[in-house]
Amino acid sequence: MTEITRRSLLSSSAVLPLALGLGGCASAQRHSAIKATSIVTGGKILTMDPANPFAEAMAIQGDRILAVGSNDDINALASSTTKRFDARGMTVLPGFIDAHSHPLFAQEVVGVNVGLPSIEDVKKALARKAANTPPGNWILGVMYDDTRFAEGRALTLVDIDEVVRDHPVLVHHRGGHTAVVNSKGFEVAGITIKTPDPSGGMFYRENGKFTGKVAEHAVTPFFKAGVWPVIDRAVRRQAVTLSSKKMAAAGLTSTTDAEAGIDNLIAYQDARAADEMYFRLAYMPIGTSDAYRALKLGGVRSGFGDDMLRVGAVKFLADGSASERTMRMSTPYEGRPHDYGILTMTQEEIDAAVEDAVAHDFRIGIHANGDVAIDMVMNSYEKVLRGRTGSDLRLRIEHCSLINDRLLARIKKAGVIPTPFYTYVYYHGKKWAEYGEEKMRSMFAHRSFIDAGIPVAPASDYIAGPFEPLMAIQSMVTRRDSDGHVWGAEQRISVSEALQICTMNGAYASFEEGSKGSLTAGKLADYVVLEQDPHEVDQDAIKDIKVVRTVLGGRPTYEAG
Predict the structure, then answer these.
(1) Which domain holds residue 88?
(2) Pairwise CA distance, residues 267 & 54, whole Å
(3) In whole angstroms, how far apart are CA 243 and each of 8, 106, 130, 217?
(4) How many CB atoms lie within 10 A of CB 337?
């Protein structure tokens, strides 16, 4: 595997005036005096441009697409210095886009990866970390998934206490909304069995004792107590480089940091300055952060930036998690008749957040998984849009997991962009029984959104779910989990529709459909080369298609060995 680092990869050059005028092969013939920096020939090019959906070849000039057309027409744009890529037998697509992710996962550098086969393996890993950690200092576990252990159960406080007693331990779920804490952790945070649950959070108890599980706002007190591992500026920059290389290897050229503070913004700038950022990024500040307050104070608004790093919508969270089974619904979870999930904002708080964001020319994306939370967000969106004229706000609902016909109609009317999880059906299949077959017919509802004419966006929510776009396409097309169970077959979509979501819809979600999302003359030269066409393989093998090459702004960021 080869990753190529160049300063020119990370800088956005001016668009060539003539390149903006080039379309298909006829334009290529008219402007044959303009020579391409590189060309791709011999393959099957799926442009995702409805005006010119298929091509044999493509020409690149600098960081932009010069033309797409036939092999003969594109070869005419080559000179003796033009670089050539022979794509015979391969399929070329626009670079994949992820509209909701958390790519700066620096915690893995200082924590313990507990994404292991068994609870016994986790206990051994925590014990090893404790042996090399000063007594009293926190130990952080990362990548925890409660449904994937050989024991068939979740990790508990008792499990951790058996191996670590002198250190506070917090094992964070990969979904980000829950954790498991040991007895020492509760002690350090000053939380006893008599401590009431915080608003929008829960300390889980059984038989008058803590289970160790904490959710939503109940996680926060632990991070405010004791001595935590230090994640410094250099570590964060390295995390950007590592994650962007991994994402490039999967065919991603653009992603979104959908819950970012000031340290993340600094890390992306540092990595870019070091020529070590291998994706384009939309930066979504979290609404409670110093970063958001500073951006507003400085008059910065959504859209500020350039093609590599741009300020996106502000992010708020209205309820819990789908994968951690805490999202707020109008009906209870299967087997838990009194559990409807958790709200993390009131209607008044949502109203205030939306009004303030719009007043400061910020777009807004509110995390709302359950139908109750989605309804509350739509109340606020409809209120702020009432009687409004002027710019298109493209308000977003992050995740928008459980819908109904009434919510669908309201989302369509308001022009709201939903970003449902696209790898979740496949990857998190063991969790869906807690929602039941009936709910799953209306969850991650890509078919319903498409049929309603809603430009549903692509969203991995990495690290909560895998970021690989090919897994996402398979998941949306088959609705089959990794064990072969089908969840909500009514929401299946076609391969072509899934590709549209992962390219043009992703660009539309960030107001960038004019510069990326399709292989069109004048747009950024972001593309991916696949060994096979996703339309032509077994649908249950789409995730296994080999990524041959990923190109960002005309320069390779990944090449398979």
Answers:
(1) 1-95+518-561
(2) 39
(3) 20, 9, 27, 27
(4) 9
| Per-residue CA distances from 414 to 154, 375, 380, 453, 510 (Å) | 41, 13, 11, 12, 17
Per-residue pLDDT tens over the stretch 38-93: 999 999 999 999 999 999 999 999 999 999 999 999 999 999 999 999 999 999 99
Q: Dihedral (C-alpha) 414, 420, 422, 423: value to the nearest 10 degrees?
A: 180
Residues 140, 76: one domain? no
Rounded to a whole number of angstroms, the CA Rg of the chain reads 24
Helices (H), 23-68: 25-30
Residue type, 7: R
What sections of 113-211 are H helices per DSSP? 119-131, 157-161, 183-189
- Residue keyed to tokens 């929510």: 461
DSSP, collapsed to helix, strand or coil, labels residue 158 as helix
pTM of the model: 0.89
Out of 193, 223, 253, pick the residue that ends a domain: 223
Q: Is the pLDDT of residue 4 over 50?
A: no
Pairwise CA distance, residues 265 & 262, whole Å: 5
Q: Which are the contacts of 277, defined by CB distance < 8 A and separation ≥ 6?
A: 10, 240, 241, 244, 268, 271, 308, 309
Distance (Å, whole) CA 245 – CA 517: 20
Same domain assignment for residues 555 and 441: no
